[in-house]
Amino acid sequence: MTQILNTSGSNSKDYFDLLSAKIGGSNTGMLLRVRDGVEIRGYNKKKITTQKITIGSYNEGDLEAVEVGIRGYNKGSIKKAKFITIGSHNEGDLEAIEFVEIRGYNKKKITTQKITIGSYNEGDLEAVEVGIRGHNKGSIKKAKFITIGSHNEGDLEAIESVEIRGYNKKKITTQKITIGSYNEGNLEAVEVGIRGYNKGSIKKAKIITIGSYNEGDLEATESVEIRGYNKKKITTQKITIGSYNEGDLEATESVEIRGYNKKKITTQKITIGSYNEGDLEAVEVGIRGYNKGSIKKAKIVIIGSYNAALVKAEQQVFLSANIRGGDVYANEITYAGFKINAGIINAMSRGDVITHEYEVGMVNGRRLIETLTLTCISEKEKWEINAQDVVNELTIFSGGRLSKEAMLRLRYQSGELRSITYTNAVHSPRRSRRFWPFG
């Protein structure tokens, strides 16, 4: 029995129970139960069983070793190896305990602890950790960590994390997903981060962050943040959009849009940093810019600049600047620090003045009377204050001056209400004031 096979040429014979084998050319014979290692500088077509195998070209036979290195590619099966390195690509099944590295691509199933593929994968991968520097077209299962350098067109299932530096076209199921470019497939994860944009569906995620924009459906339990814009429906607990939204939004708690919104938003609270052109339905609505859509069922509406459409609120509407061309309906409106509790007051034409006298106290046994004056300054203006159908129910909780704690119920139909003036019956110049609550 030959203990060591060492030849500068090729081998076509079968050997059993060798100590080691070194073949300068190619191998077409079986090398079984080699104790230390087998090195073939050419290619291998038959089965080899040993501790360590190195093949310089490619392999078409079955290999069983603790460590296998193929500088070309593999078409056969490699089983139970701890370490496998293939320089070009793999078209056979691989089973390793610890590690498989393929510098080219893979077309068939790999089962191991860790897989690194330099180019792309078209086969199924099962590992604790998978890294693909190119792209993936096959299925990855049971991996804790998956990293894809370019893009993914296959299904991914990971326990903890998937990172795709390119884009993804198919379903990903994991705890956390990060996509560097964009996604066109379905994503299911606790946390999803997309640095580019999304065209597919994201479901059941607690946190979603999209760096550019979204054209697909998003469903999250807790939060969605879009730094660009969104074109389709979003359902989640909380939504933050950095630029603008062109789709429907549904959130349980809060929607914040730093840019603008063109479609319907349904949530508990809405904050829009710039302006809104769509319908808003929320308990509380805050618009720092202006609004051209309809606001319904809100208890509190805060408009920082102006409103150009219908606003309906059950309790409070805050208008701190101009109101242009829209309707406001609310139980309570605050503007320029005033609140007035109203009866029926109508002012429908230019110069129409409505006054209301009220007692502010006693001085030397004389009652001090002040007069609230509301003046219509434009023919285009149509506004009315409605409460109990009698003018004398207009009350001011004032003391000696116009109170900031009074209330009014106002229906503002069109035009601009530019000023509110009031004077008092004592005719003191210091007690007569004009307010320009809308800038």
Describe the structure.
With 439 residues, this protein is mostly beta strands. Among the domains are: 268-334, no CATH class; 337-439, no CATH class. Helices cover 0% and strands 52% of the residues. It contains no helices and 54 strands. The strands form five sheets. The chain has a 34-stranded mixed beta sheet that branches. A ten-stranded parallel beta sheet has the order 22-25-28-30-32-34-36-39-42-44, with no helix packed on it. The protein is rod-shaped and about 130 Å long. The N and C termini lie far apart (104 Å). The model is unreliable at 320-350 and 376-439 (pLDDT under 50).
Instruction: State which percent range the strand residues make up.
Output: over 45%
Number of strands: 54
Contiguous low-pLDDT stretches (5 residues minimum) are 320-350, 376-439
| Terminal Cα span | 104 Å
- Helix-residue proportion: under 10%
Average of pLDDT: 77
Profile the largest sheet.
Answer: 34 strands, mixed
Alpha-beta content class = mainly beta
Q: What's the total helix number?
A: 0
Layout of SSEs?
Layout lengths: L3 E4 L7 E2 L3 E4 L7 E2 L4 E4 L7 E2 L2 E4 L7 E2 L2 E4 L7 E9 L7 E9 L2 E2 L3 E2 L2 E4 L2 E2 L3 E2 L2 E4 L2 E2 L3 E9 L2 E2 L3 E9 L2 E2 L3 E2 L2 E4 L2 E2 L3 E2 L2 E4 L2 E2 L3 E9 L2 E2 L3 E9 L2 E2 L3 E8 L2 E2 L3 E9 L2 E2 L3 E2 L2 E4 L2 E2 L3 E2 L2 E4 L2 E2 L3 E9 L2 E2 L3 E9 L8 E3 L2 E2 L10 E3 L5 E11 L2 E10 L6 E4 L24 E5 L5 E5 L8 E3 L4
